[in-house]
Design a protein that fits this description.
The complex is a heterodimer of chains A (123) and B (416). Chain A is an alpha+beta fold and 123 residues long. Chain A has one domain (3-25, 38-122): Folate-binding fold, CATH 3.30.2270. Chain A has two helices and six strands. The longest helix of chain A has 10 residues, at 109-118. Chain B has two domains: 28-80 and 85-95 and 184-254 and 345-402, 3-Layer(bba) Sandwich (FAD/NAD(P)-binding domain), CATH 3.50.50.60; 108-180 and 255-340, D-Amino Acid Oxidase, subunit A, domain 2 (D-Amino Acid Oxidase, Chain A, domain 2). Chain B has helices at 6-14, 42-55, 87-106, 125-140, 150-156, 184-197, 241-248, 310-323, 372-385, 399-402, 409-412; strands spanning 35-38, 60-63, 79-80, 118-122, 146-149, 172-176, 180-181, 201-203, 208-214, 217-223, 226-229, 233-235, 255-266, 274-277, 282-286, 291-298, 332-342, 349-352, 358-362.
Chain lengths: 123, 416
């Protein structure tokens, strides 16, 4: 169970209030009529799927109903930061070569130890 | 290889079961193979088996980073069926179902394939219209399939709540009598043993860490046990396929999600078929051991952790209890997750790639167990000839640029 900090409500709330909405920071081709099948297919169907740090959109569906972004580790599931739409992440795969200790927005220690314990289960 | 038989069982019993052969060797990697399969799940092992058996290519290695069948193959809820909507998908899954029907004999291993039928329930008028359409499409494709009304469902599963009191009353179902379940780890072990008998090297604890690519063609792989040369690689790594594609320098239209399942304490026989419902979102059968085998939906976020959120499990059990109030006090015994590689059109990718000699078989997502023999069979032909098998051809990566998608969200959906 994630404990997610909504940057609009400025509160930690339980995962069930939220919905994941896929990769963040996608930009629609400027002129869809004028783009190649290659570029259009890439935009529609090809997503980053990293084993590691990922930036994704979530919506606070049963709260303020606003979209925002999360930087999260896809193996430990640790949430590294949440930030508003239009903002850029401060933690990326490039900046995060050594994984930082829990940051302000992922201070949910209970969840953090749980996910660390689960790392041993990977095949 | 010793053949397994009833007679053999008696013979070994007389010797107190003390001299059974090992099921497969544990060889050291050679420096070169004619073909390398990455991923020792059911699909990879089946590919190796059919490469040897049907195409005479036996200088083959299967590289598995963990243990054979330790991925999704032995984590699924074992449902096997072929009642998919579109011609291309129905042809592939029906090809597989036909292979299932002779599989235990073919590989001399009891995979406990049990054709106990599958019900896909409808709870709304639109569900029932979709079911009619799919059943008609199935019949045109030679797939056994029937539409049942609520009474028909109740006759097959007397313990299901067929009353109007349910929040989402059952209006009917599609019924595929030839569908069923199989024992998933036996499928991995059976293909492994049969492939090993042809001389295929099964290399466990062998992780591929990169590809050797020369002038756009694959010439080998890097592993934690050294480099191995080969000019044909079949990558069959399910949830990790995106990571492997990244090593080869291209992207796949896949996202990796956790998918969870759970089993109850064992009980006396009470459910002798498979029941699935897209609308209330759950599916259930009873194993030969007696435990209820229950599958959840995917967790919506990307994840490689082989675990999902508890809420997902809770919602699944709500759906099961909605359909089967009689199970409300059954205790659950174990729960786990796999990493499924979901594709935008809910169909797999069996394809050439931008790298010559490197082929991918992935994207089976939440529903590839049923395809294990068929997938291995057509993928082996693809590797042997260097060109896609006719049943595999529509499942090329190109479809995500040409637009020729095969949209199976209706037949795949939550359902597996
Ligand atoms: C909970 C759950 C329920 C399911 N229920 C059903 C169902 O009822 N019916 C159905 O048809 N399907 C179902 N599925 C889907 C089905 O399990 C999969 O589609 C199928 O098993 C995939 O088989 P595979 O051999 O391709 O993958 P896997 O069995 O996952 O094998 C891939 C292998 O690749 C290995 N690997 C990964 N990276 C590397 C590397 N770098 N080097 C070497 N090896 C590597 C992994 O360790 C793994 O063993 C379910 C899946 C899950 C998780
Ligand atoms: Zn909010």
């Amino acid at each position: 169970m994630f404990h997610i900090y909504c940057p609009y409500c400025e509160e930690y709330r339980e995962e069930e209030e939220f919905h994941p909405k896929g990769q963040a920071h996608l930009s629609r081709p400027e002129d869809p009529d004028d783009c190649s099948d290659e570029a259009w297919g890439d935009y529609l169907f090809f997503r980053d799927n990293p084993r590691g740090i990922h930036h994704e959109m979530w919506v606070h569906a049963q709260g303020c109903r606003k979209f925002f972004n999360i930087t999260r580790h896809t193996v430990t599931y640790e949430i590294l930061e949440t930030y508003k739409m239009g903002e850029q992440p401060t933690i990326t795969a490039e900046t995060n070569t050594a994984r930082p200790a829990a940051t302000a927005s992922s201070a949910d220690d209970r969840a953090a130890t749980e996910v660390k314990g689960a790392q041993g289960v990977q095949a | 290889m010793q053949r397994y038989s009833g007679f053999g069982l008696v013979k070994h019993a007389l010797r107190h079961h003390e001299d059974w052969q090992r099921q497969w060797r544990n060889p050291e990697p050679k420096t070169q193979y004619d073909a390398i399969i990455i991923g020792g799940g059911g699909h990879g092992l089946a590919t190796a088996y059919y490469l040897a058996k049907e195409h005479g290519i036996t200088n083959v290695a299967v590289l598995e980073k963990g243990w054979l069948g330790g991925g999704n193959t032995a984590r699924n809820t074992t449902i096997v069926r072929s009642n998919y909507l579109w011609d291309e998908a129905a042809a592939l899954y029906e090809h597989s179902l036909k292979l299932w029907e002779g599989l235990s004999q073919d590989i001399n291993y009891n995979v406990m394939f049990s054709q106990r039928g599958v019900l896909n329930l409808g709870h709304t008028l639109q569900d029932m219209r979709d079911i009619q359409r799919r059943v008609n499409a199935n019949r045109l494709n030679g797939v056994d399939s029937e539409v049942l009304d609520a009474k028909g469902v109740q006759e097959i599963v007397p313990i299901i709540d067929g009353s109007k009191r349910a929040r989402y009353p059952i209006m009917g179902a599609s019924w595929q009598p030839r569908a069923g379940v199989a024992r998933h780890d036996a499928v991995a072990w059976g293909f492994a043993r049969a492939a090993d008998a042809y001389g295929v090297d099964l290399l466990q604890n062998t992780e591929v860490t990169g590809f050797k690519i020369l002038d756009g063609r694959v010439v080998g792989v890097h592993t934690n046990r050294g480099d191995i040369e080969t000019r044909t690689v079949g990558c069959v790594t399910a949830g990790n396929s995106g990571v492997l594609a990244g090593m080869a320098g291209f992207k796949l239209p896949l996202e990796s999600h956790p998918l969870q399942a759970l089993v109850s304490e064992p009980m006396k026989p009470i459910l002798d078929t498979v029941v699935m419902s897209n609308a209330v979102h759950g599916y259930i059968s009873q194993s030969d051991k007696g435990d209820l085998v229950i599958g959840a939906g995917i967790d919506g976020y990307n994840g490689y952790g082989q675990r999902g959120s508890y809420a997902t499990v809770e919602h699944t059990l709500q759906a099961i209890v909605e359909m089967f109030p009689i199970f409300s006090r059954v205790r659950m015994n174990r729960q786990w997750g796999g990493i499924v590689d979901t594709c935008p059109d809910a169909c797999p990718i069996l394809s050439k790639t931008p790298v010559k000699g490197l082929f991918f078989n992935c994207g089976w997502g939440t529903g590839g167990f049923k395809a294990t023999p068929g997938s291995g069979h057509v993928f082996a032909a693809t590797l042997a000839k260097g060109e896609p098998h006719p049943l595999a051809a529509p499942f090329s990566i190109d479809r995500f640029h040409s637009g020729a998608l095969i949209d199976e969200h209706g037949a795949a959906g939550v359902a597996h």
